[in-house]
Every structure is written in structure tokens, then in C-alpha cells.
Amino acid sequence: MNIAGGRFVITGGASLIGSHVADRLLAEGAREVVLLDNFALGTPQAVAHLDGDARVRLVRGDILRINELYDAFAGADGVFAVAGFLTLPLSQNPPLGLAVNVEGQVNTFEACRYAGVNKVVFSSSIAAYGEPGDGLIDESAPANLASYQPGSMLYSCTKLIGEALCKLYSAKHGVDAVALRYATVYGERQHYRGVNALHIIQSYDRIMRGEPPVLPGDGSEVHDYIHVADVARANVMAMASEVTGEVFNVVTGVETTVKRIAEIVLAITGSDLQPEYADDANAVKATSSPSLKLSREKIARMLGWEPELSVEEGIRRLIDWRKTCAD
Ligand SMILES: NC(=O)c1ccc[n+]([C@@H]2O[C@H](COP(=O)([O-])OP(=O)(O)OC[C@H]3O[C@@H](n4cnc5c(N)ncnc54)[C@H](O)[C@@H]3O)[C@@H](O)[C@H]2O)c1
Question: Is the CB of 41 under 6 A from ligand 1?
């Protein structure tokens, strides 16, 4: 599919990821980008930088109301199914979070089928794997959910349902669809809803108040931190490709400890504070593994995508953006 000249809808368009997908589509010459959001979690500020761009339309719409999708999807070439409740908001409001992540995705696919949309790119998560083992995790790895915390388990199940919808509508209903399993996404316009990216922005906030970053355990917990611009590029490449019915990791393949993240934030801010270590027994967690080896071989081979930003450069960008918010 050609991105240049195309018309695209992003459900959950006022999100961290949706706003960057919009930026990328516009940079590649999309004719129209519709940002559909009910602002349950995101805010118009996330896309305020697009005000005045005649190609962008911000539509207040709810993926739980299918009639609102029929209107927005009419004439669209592709839909980015980004709207969803992350583990934290889903744990806080299970009835709404489950409805949005399951019924909302069903509505999205049904409305795409009805409107004749060619392709859906669905925002999934590496949470679909559950607790990671020690080995390299590729897309054929089974879900290991038995020891997951309940909120994470629910979130994971909703993403697996979304992925199954991709395969079903691709195979049976003529809607091409690809699911992208993101690792821990962070970057400019960062929010406080991502269970694993939270400590980046919290560490920064604490340092700005003259307080030390507080890290869980001994700081050796690792995550795979992927910058949102790399995630947005993966979305647009997935939309442009002919590939359908597939699931892809969107990961760096690099393990970074939470201690290393704090060191990066301390270095960028020029602070000599030392991290403190404390566990919050009530914290919602996705995974706290000392090992997380995720493969990006499949997406490199089939879509030609590779991450471009190191975690050092990505956090610098996040902090530069954050400073402009404080001004
Ligand atoms: N941020 C991450 O680290 C990460 C990792 C893996 C997967 N994901 C997935 O990527 C997607 C976007 O993540 P994000 O961090 O940008 O999230 P976010 O919380 O910033 O965005 C979710 C958006 O969906 C909107 N929304 C919620 N309910 C809606 C409804 N009923 N109708 C229309 N819009 C609705 C919210 O208002 C919000 O703007 C989510 O589906 C999430 O599960 C995110």
C-alpha cells in the first residue's frame, strides 16, 4: 500500500504511540490522517503540535460505539488499531479496560470489514509472551502466563485476542492485518500509564525535585526499551507492506537494567544523586525478570525494520521534550 496520498485512521490517536504514528504518516506524505479518540486516557495536548495541519482531523469517537467507527473509517485505506488500556489502567478499571481491549477491537475489525478498509495494524505487546524464560524469544514462543500478576494476565489475554482477530479477519473477511508486539515504549509525550516505562519519567521528576531515583529490588531487573519513533516507523512499514496475518516483535533486542536507565537520566540531568532501592509490594508489575532476550529477526527479514535509536539517545529526546513542558 502507498502511504503517500493515502487516507488513514488511528484509533486512540491522542496517545503516545498514535501521535507518533500520525507524525510518521504525515512525514511520508499521507493525504489524510484521522485521529479518533474518546480521550478516556489520552488528551488533545498529545496531538496539539498537529493543530493547523489541513491533512489532520481530530474526531471524538469511541471504539465501543461501532456507529462512530463506520463514519470515521469510510474511505480509509488503512486503520492503525492503537486504542487500548495498558496494564495499569486496565487493572484500575477492569470492566472498561476489558471492554475496550476486546469488544472495542472486535468493533474496529467489523467496521473495517464493513467500510472496505484494506489493512489494519494492531498494537499488541510482548506481554503476550507472559513471563520470559532465559532463551531468545521469537514469535513462535508460547505464552507463559501461569505466574503473571492478574492485571498483566488480563492485559496479555486481551492482546492475544486482538492478534487472533487479525488472523481471523485476514483469513476470512478480506481485511489484511498485522499485529505488532511492542516492548517497553518510551519517548516524547511520555505518559504515566506504562508499567515499565514509568520509572524513567518518575526518576526524572524526582531528580528535578532534588530527590534520588527509587528503583525496585537491586536495580538488576531488565527491560527492552524501544523508542516511540522506532515503533511508529514499524507501524507505517507494516501498513505499507503486503504482509498479512503475521505477528512481529517490535523490540531492540537489547536488555537494559532499571539501574542503567537511572544512570542515564542522572547523567543527562547532570545530577550526582545516588539511586535508592525499595520494593512496593502493591505495585502492578508486568515482569521483573533479570533476563529478557527478544528476537527482532522476523521483522527485519519480512518488513526490513530495524530500530534506529539507542536508549541513551531516546531518553535524551524524552528529557528534552519534558523540559519544554515545564517551561
Ligand atoms: N506504551 C507501551 O509501552 C506499550 C507497549 C505495548 C503495547 N502498547 C499498546 O499500544 C497502544 C498505545 O499505547 P500508548 O502507550 O500510546 O497508550 P495511551 O494510554 O497513551 O493510549 C491509549 C489511547 O486510547 C484511547 N482510548 C481508550 N479507550 C478508547 C475508546 N473506547 N475509544 C477511543 N479511544 C480510546 C485513550 O484515550 C488513549 O489516547 C495500546 O493499545 C497499548 O496496549 C503500548
Answer: yes
At residue 326 the predicted structure's pLDDT band, cuts being 50, 70 and 90, is low
- Third-level CATH fold of 7-186+225-251+297-308: Rossmann fold (3.40.50)
Please report, to the nearest 10 degrees, the dihedral formed by the alpha carbons of residues 107, 109, 110, 112 taken in order. Answer: 120
Predicted pLDDT of residue 216: 85
pLDDT digits (tens, 9 = 90+) for 215-228: 888 888 899 999 99
How far does the chain reach from its first CA to its final CA, in angstroms? 41
The CB of 82 under 6 Å from ligand 1? The reply is yes
Whether residue 64 has its Cβ less than 6 Å from ligand 1: yes
Which residues does 56 contact at the CB level (< 8 Å), separation at least 6? 22, 26, 32, 33, 34, 35, 47, 50
Residue 302 has phi, psi (to 5 degrees) of -95, -30
> Where are the chain's structural domains?
7-186+225-251+297-308
Model-level pTM?
0.95
**Interval between CA 130 and ligand 1 midpoint (Å):** 19
